[in-house]
Write a structure and sequence with these properties.
Length: 728
């Protein structure tokens, strides 16, 4: 083994020298290496790469782009090193070579952190024959063949293939190579598995047969959600422990995590993962570019200050999976810029080490070189946003079920788009992390149809308001418990100042909301700012019936019930049977509560009506009731974030004002005109200078009573206003 290892080092040192790299001692892995790398490079080998690709080319590229972390394919489906494990399938092109080892040592020689990638989701026929019980089984009892490649079968993620075989593979890689960790792709299974192990283990856990439905009201389905998650976390802990037994400073890092629709509890992931890689490679279908920043916020909600890396693809990531394609440069830049603005460290992934279309190479190089030059301004300590939007995997799993996207995610996406348009910086918040410490940074909490909440979670939200916090909530928030069981009344009825009267209505057509003046003052409430001349605006599509019980404040909006939209002769409103509020407003101590008993976020996401956007922004501003950390004035649509670093603060402005904003690929970058940025400087900090990091120059600024004002030049994709702090 020792001889072999020295052989690797000699060979990789040669490669590094050929790539013009300064010779350094390979870095020993450090306990806290996780926060060190800022820019990652991933080379995902394909089976015919060994002997056919140019390692020198890649090491040279990694050096030129200042990549300081590398992820390299090692084993699982296909081994790219001379594995000694029986039935661990070696690349047919491997011969006597060791492409993983060569690249790993070459990267180490350049001082990079190195992670080995494994993929356990598929195996060849010999394993099917030797261990039929390692293979995933469909609902009809058949072993599952791979849909994309008929030479492969799908493995069961929850049985001995992962727990035993892949554990051995993991140990071999970590024992043989100086790696900082193992990153596993497609480790969590490919849908339901009905193999003998899954059947037995699930029965032992729950006393039930595996569910045959996705309906979360089914007892077996509920138990399955809990069991699968428990089993995967068991696997995570097993692999991490085995890795640490060999290399105490290395870790297992799963490809896992996400927002409300992701399947593994983010709170637990946040506890287990020392760092995490958000695998959201590009846009597909209808998707705004801010979706990448949203990933950053969702991961951050659970991981806090830990480094979070955003994996982006340089190819097209549409359904048809053109894996050797190259996306246009502006689309890559826009996607990555929004991730960086929201705290993601960039990580490019390239499948196939023999690049065919090379147009992406200078695009990534330019971004990474810029990132490297401005690194100190991108090492964020904390976001300064005062608004937090809650996301709830629990609501998606146990209330939404198969309709989770429509019932849960779309409501959040509407709020998200409205806050982008309003240029209000905000964070995401995990619903299992609503304790005082996690909410301390926030003035306002948004609950976009967070329907399923336990008593304890409702209690935490009440306490947040009691401490002076504000809440903006919608539709069925708190109307179900944590298992998705309906309550008689909202868990937060007292906070809303409204009780549920048992009625659910929708989909509604042709329903409206009338704007009402406050009879005491004769004026419209600030909630209606910018739409006072409307008389009435459109209603949402679904609503719950409520009776207001609060302090009897005037209602700024009242419901015009749905009335015929055909025949045209009949299109006139009928007298309403009762007067009903379209919104409930309360002031509670220093806090304020806005509750919309309808699907304002989902409707906005579907219809994008300007009035609903204003209403959402006004609700958040009225509830927040304090000077914003940053305001940005000027034309265009921008994603705005505000951060503090050790000796500086930054405001990111990502220009989303482009053709194809809602769907990639973007056609052209149209610069927005200069913006007037006003930044509130944190107490005890003193500004000593200002820079524009993309324009690459110092900026003139005015400072008055802790607020710095700067005019930016026109913005293409991205600008970063950076304020340096001097000694105060
Ligand atoms: Zn199974």
């Amino acid at each position: 083994m020792e001889t072999t290892r020295r052989g690797f080092v000699a060979q990789s040192a040669g490669l590094a020298a050929a790539a013009g790299v300064a010779q350094e001692e390979p870095r020993a892995a450090e306990a806290d290496w996780y926060d060190r790398p800022m820019r990652w490079a991933q080379l995902a080998f394909v089976e015919d790469d060994p002997g056919n690709y140019d390692p020198k080319f890649w090491l040279d590229y990694f050096r030129r782009i200042h990549a300081d972390g590398a992820c390299l394919s090692a084993g699982g489906c296909v081994a790219f090193y001379p594995t000694q494990i029986p039935m661990h399938y070696r690349s047919r092109w491997l011969g006597a070579s060791d492409p993983f080892g060569d690249m790993a040592h070459g990267c180490r020689a350049m001082g990079m952190n190195v992670i080995a990638r494994t993929d356990p989701h598929a195996v060849h026929r010999d394993i099917v024959d030797a261990h039929p019980d390692w293979i995933a089984v469909d609902a009809k009892g058949n072993q599952r063949r791979h849909e994309s490649d008929a030479d492969f079968w799908i493995t069961c993620a929850l049985g001995p293939y992962n727990f035993e075989f892949m554990t051995t593979v993991t140990e071999e890689i970590v024992r043989r190579y100086d790696v900082d960790g193992i990153f596993t792709n497609r480790w969590a299974g490919s849908g339901m598995c009905y193999c003998e192990h899954c059947r037995e283990n699930f029965r032992a856990f729950s006393g039930l047969d595996l569910p045959r439905t996705n309906d979360p009201r089914d007892a077996a389905r509920r138990q399955y959600i809990v069991w699968r998650e428990q089993r995967l976390f068991e696997l995570w802990r097993l692999w991490d422990a085995r890795i640490k037994a060999i290399r105490p400073k290395a870790a297992y890092i799963a490809n896992a995590g996400g927002g409300a629709l992701s399947g593994l509890d983010m709170k637990t992931i946040g506890e287990l993962a020392p760092t995490l890689f958000a695998d959201r490679q590009a846009r597909r279908g209808l998707m705004p570019p801010w979706a990448n920043g949203k990933n950053g916020k969702e991961y951050r909600a659970a991981l806090g200050r830990k480094a979070i890396v955003g994996i982006f693809s340089v190819g097209l990531e549409e359904e048809y999976r053109w894996k050797d394609s190259v996306q246009n440069g502006d689309e890559i830049r826009l996607w990555v810029a929004d991730g960086i603005a929201q705290g993601l460290r960039p990580w490019f992934v390239k499948f196939n080490a023999k690049p065919i279309d090379r147009r992406w190479l200078p695009v990534v190089e330019r971004m990474y070189v810029w990132h490297h030059a401005n690194e100190s301004y991108l090492r964020n300590e904390r976001p300064l946003a005062r608004v937090g939007m809650v996301y709830s995997q629990q609501t998606a799993e146990f209330h939404g079920g198969e309709r989770a996207r429509e019932l849960v995610e779309d409501e959040a996406l509407g709020f998200y788009q409205a806050l982008i348009e309003a240029r209000i910086p905000f964070e995401m918040v995990h619903d299992r992390l609503l304790d005082e410490a996690h909410l301390a940074a926030f003035r306002t909490l948004i609950l976009p149809n967070i329907a399923a909440l336990s008593e304890a979670q409702c209690g935490q939200i009440r306490e947040f308001v009691a401490r002076g916090g504000s809440v903006v909530a919608s539709y069925e928030t708190s109307l179900y418990d944590e298992w998705g069981e309906a309550r008689r009344d909202f868990g937060l009825a007292e906070l809303w100042g409204a009780t549920f009267d048992g009625r659910r209505e929708g989909p509604m057509r042709n329903s409206y909301l009338t704007l009402e003046k406050d009879p005491a003052t004769g004026r419209y409430h600030p909630l209606l700012g910018g739409i006072e001349d409307a008389t009435r605006i459109i209603n949402g599509v679904h609503r719950v019936g409520v009776t207001l019980t609060g302090e009897g404040r005037a209602w700024p909006l009242t419901v015009v019930p749905t009335y015929p939209d055909l025949p045209m002769e009949e299109v006139f409103p009928r007298p309403a049977p009762r007067r009903e509020a379209g919104v409930a407003l309360r002031e509670v101590g220093r806090g304020r509560v806005v509750y919309f008993p309808w699907d304002i976020g989902r409707t906005f996401w579907e219809v994008l009506d300007v009035d609903h956007g204003r209403l959402l922004a006004n609700a958040v501003r009225w509830a927040t009731n304090e000077a914003a950390p940053v305001t940005v004035e000027g034309a265009g649509v921008l994603d705005v974030s505000v951060w503090e670093q050790k000796n500086s603060m930054t405001v990111h402005l990502v220009n989303l004002t482009n053709p194809m904003m809602m769907k990639g690929p973007v056609r052209q970058v149209i610069a927005v005109p200069g913006q007037r940025v006003r930044v509130r400087v944190p107490a005890a900090r003193k500004v000593s200078g200002a820079r524009l990091l993309v324009a690459g120059r110092a900026a003139a600024y005015r400072e008055e009573r802790g607020v710095v004002e700067i005019e930016t030049p026109a913005i293409g994709v991205h600008e970063v206003v950076a304020l340096d702090f001097g000694r105060s």
